[in-house]
Amino acid sequence: MKYSKLFGKTLRQPPKDATTVNHRLLTQAGYVEQLMAGVYTYLPLGLRVLTNIARVVREEMNLIDAQEILMPTLHPKANWEITKGWSNIDVLFKLKSRTDKEYALGQSEEEVVTPLVKGRISTYKDLPLCLYQIHWKYRDELRAKSGILRGREFFMKDLYSFHDTQEDFQRFYEIAKKTYLKIFKRLGLTAKVTEASGGGFSEKISYEFIVLTDAGEDTILYCDSCDFCVNVDIAKLKLGDLCASCKKSKLKQAKGSEVGNVFDLGQKYCKDFDITITGRDGEKIHPIMGCYGIGISRIMGVIVEKYNDKNGILWPKEATPYQMHLVGIGLDNKDILSKTHETYRKLQNKNVEILYDDRVDVSPGEKFADADLIGIPVRLVVSKKTGDKIEYKERDKEKTEMLSLEEVVKKVHV
Amino acid sequence: MKYSKLFGKTLRQPPKDATTVNHRLLTQAGYVEQLMAGVYTYLPLGLRVLTNIARVVREEMNLIDAQEILMPTLHPKANWEITKGWSNIDVLFKLKSRTDKEYALGQSEEEVVTPLVKGRISTYKDLPLCLYQIHWKYRDELRAKSGILRGREFFMKDLYSFHDTQEDFQRFYEIAKKTYLKIFKRLGLTAKVTEASGGGFSEKISYEFIVLTDAGEDTILYCDSCDFCVNVDIAKLKLGDLCASCKKSKLKQAKGSEVGNVFDLGQKYCKDFDITITGRDGEKIHPIMGCYGIGISRIMGVIVEKYNDKNGILWPKEATPYQMHLVGIGLDNKDILSKTHETYRKLQNKNVEILYDDRVDVSPGEKFADADLIGIPVRLVVSKKTGDKIEYKERDKEKTEMLSLEEVVKKVHV
């Protein structure tokens, strides 16, 4: 992509209403634009990042034999009355058609996926069944001031699993947990797993996957010596108490952002929608359900909160909108112009995804500042000085190297 | 994908409430499930088709240098008041937050894309600018009874172009028209281009891309001797009149379904949102806008309306959920089972997308009927009879051939 043509260039000034790092940097670097609080347009660079994160999630979901479907956003009121969500869930957006039909906007999809499964499973042999979707969700948040960390509309992966026994749910939970941690790791994030209350969903325990960041809305207590971690909302412990699990260290407290969660839904929804199947001993049972979320747009925000410096963003490789950022210096000189164009073309032919700053009337300093702000992991420079080589620099390092085109291509797949 | 594991198997009976071929076949074959009138869940097979159609559209949009973005579904009331759409557009879904903020659900995005562009273009040199998105749209339809042809929520590509002159809009319209016809052709559809009224959008003329099908909601007059085609809604002609263009043939009448449209929006939205740029002669001008839609979920429905027989669907190659449908016959025999599994594995390793009917307890007749109903273009059979070959049959032909695995793989890319 030629930067001169790119829609959504960097802005000279950060947005005035930005109170969080992700809102400020993503807006200034040309990734998103806020339409109103909690509602954002994704510009070309931003959509590429969002799509990359979704791709990582999708790849890992498919590896655990979850099947992708796509459920509607408009839900009939009747389904939400059956589960009592219509009156109990305060963040549920509701609307009426002109013929006074009432709908909810999807904020979670138990009310759709459970009746969908009804009639399509009849015995324990049909289970476990894991269905997921990657779709937009809508929540009537009272406050939506954390950039894309907490949106009134947000992009999410939600998976629903159906099991004949609690043991099978627990078995699958362990698989999902591993997969979640792998997903976050691929995206440069280390998540702590807490036990928390089930919110409106369930009386049962739920699990939260929290990435430590000062912009987070959750507060957790955690132990440095073991995996123990708990949300302060439900903790019977406090900062400085001895770890309840390993008893080796004193608990620390930190802010974090929830990037994923798992709810043990028990039989609630299968009872609500009257789903029975034949169990292993021939008896009629209600299946047990689990719900597993990953906030995709939120992860994009959390990455920015974690990976930034005074100059801009530093994208992890799997999330970056382009693999390399090629900067041409001195493009008013015909020879350098054609050499830089040629480098761009050759790298494209090698399937390297390149953002190419081809602007003629912009100073080197401004181009380098834009490259740092945008945050692609590798910056390449072609100029009078670089001869038949290319200057190669990683976003998080000071050091530059002079490499041949072939050497640059090899670096992509390191 | 192993059919035994697939969520969304074929149904023995068509749905009772289906009045259109696409609703009936897509439901019975396991592609979609209606949640309520005009609102559908896409099951794994259906989502693959929808994704394929979107991929074709995206590829062609990128070729004409349109840039993909993603705009929100929740729109602030203020934007729709500026354009008068809030009170004038009867299909606009409206909702309120619990703090009485009012929103519209996106049914078209001029109200978002125009202010988005403001401040990011300042001179004619920044134009033409073409932005598109592929996203769900919401329309409060009074009647939504045509399966996925007319949904209350539907998947759509919408592109917006900005120009400094009417001539440049016209130049780009011709490019877009060619691209649209190419997209439809890749998806097995031949569209006629009509001129029609601009609906609520514009006083200006608009263009509709209509595929002839009895399930369509539009009626058009067309000429067999030339490209002349007009929607009866605005035609001053009638069935049997001499073609107004070539004067060679009498006009025919047919039903059709609109799969795409183009609106010449003129300066309306740029005036509404007060966008001025510097024109070629240094004067201040309002840019001219065009809007270009393609109904992706609708195309999926139209394909089914066009390509079906008494046994089921016949997918075009670019839309089909899988490239080949492998049927194992006699899988209770260990040798045949392992030979069929081996064939499946080898074809997968050759990157052939395969739906593999691995069911043991189902008769050959039922498997063949399911394959015809699902409508993948190629059916492969491995059985006792096929020896070290594979029986190859195309969905729209009676003839079967015995091919080696290598020969089967070669057929994929014909």
TrEMBL record, chains A, B:
Broad enzyme group: ligase
All copies of domain Aminoacyl-transfer RNA synthetases class-II family profile, residue ranges: 33-316
A cellular-component GO term for this protein: cytosol
UniProt record, GO biological process: prolyl-tRNA aminoacylation
Pfam families: HGTP_anticodon, tRNA-synt_2b
Keyword annotations from UniProtKB, A to Z: Aminoacyl-tRNA synthetase, ATP-binding, Ligase, Nucleotide-binding, Protein biosynthesis
Gene Ontology molecular function: any one: ATP binding
Chemical reaction(s) catalysed: tRNA(Pro) + L-proline + ATP = L-prolyl-tRNA(Pro) + AMP + diphosphate
Presence of keyword Ligase: yes
EC number: 6.1.1.15
Name this polypeptide is given: Proline--tRNA ligase
Organism field: Candidatus Roizmanbacteria bacterium RIFCSPLOWO2_01_FULL_40_42
